[in-house]
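To: structure subgroup
Subject: Chain for Friday's discussion

All,

I'm putting the inputs and outputs inline so they're searchable in the archive.
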Amino acid sequence: MKVHSFRNIIRQGIAGLLHICAGELKAVFKDQGVLIFFLLVPLAYPLVYAFIYTNEVVRDVPTAVVDANNSTLSRKFVRLIDASADVQIQSHCADMEEAKTLLKENKAYGIIYIPESFSSDIATGKQTTVSIYCDMSGMLYYKAILLASTNASLDMNKLIQIQRLGNTTDRQDEISTAPIEYEDISLFNPQDGFASFLIPAVLMLIIQQTLLLGIGLSAGTARENNRFHDLIPASRHYQGTLRIVFGKSFAYFLIYAILSAYVLCAVPKMFRLIQIAQADTLFAFVLPYILACIFFAMTCSVFIRHRETCMLVYVFTSIPLLFISGISWPGASIPTFWKVFSWIFPSTFGINGFVRINSMGATLHEVQTEFQALWLQTGVYFLLTCLVYRQQILSSHRHALERLKQIKRRHRR
């Protein structure tokens, strides 16, 4: 009898779990808002970001030049800058006021000012200064103009040094100007591309944020449609905390198992981004990340009272989460408080681990800290989800009893 009853309990539990899972999937595909956040946004948003940054680097930045010296040497310096791939000399201005006008009209994104004493200072052995003014609304413009000007000054320094040394052979000139040879190579991103640097982090953040949006919107809808604004409906199938949590989370996992493969594998391949991860390592790492994001979103959804609330959460948190992850801004420069605060979110560990695996070829052992942290977050947020859903079940039962008492009172009257 005990075995028979135990089997019935297991059978009923699985049947209830599958019923809840099917009901949640049906609710997702019926609700256009949830469907947009669960399907359209994860499918389209990565493509938009990748298209924007598909060129990787900024080339031929329009730049204005104010050459107050107007000598052979200053014109040679300007030609060296213009010959670089990063900068295009858009205009030669008579003075700074004309150059500022071009900057205000967005016809140029930087100004290079060569002083009147440029050639005379060099001729007399004095150090001269070339000033650069940049539109700081775009950091990549500043980087391009600064690199082009720096490289041009280094090349001209070599030529001046060779002229003054008076060596007899080219080999002597090479040794005198560069006694130690060096080669600058950016590891794991040799072209210094912005897409290769930013897109992997954005892709991982999209998974967390769309889950937060979709589950939050679904929770807000459930509350608005319920008479007592309960998250859990009073139904015989919605009995048991584990059954509800596993049923709902399994539905979300089925959707995001497919979407994650598209977002993390197909999108980088389409845009030829760096992708050197081992398939088994990537799968093993992404699994706890998806689970942690699902249970994190389910925990947060309990506090969503209206459909629109989750939109505010999304807008408010997306950019700060990207910064405090340590990818967009160096992790060593983030204050301790914000670093610890970032550990609340699965995206922090997910972004850092995914970038190392996907862009640097790291093994699971080399991202063990992030991997273990994600499993820890999965466990913690699963327990929190069970606790908050248990409270919602009890609240639903109380409201059902109150409704039953009201009906009995009416019958007595």
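Points worth raising on Friday:
The chain has a mean pLDDT of 84.
The beta strands are 61-67, 87-93, 110-114, 131-134.

D.
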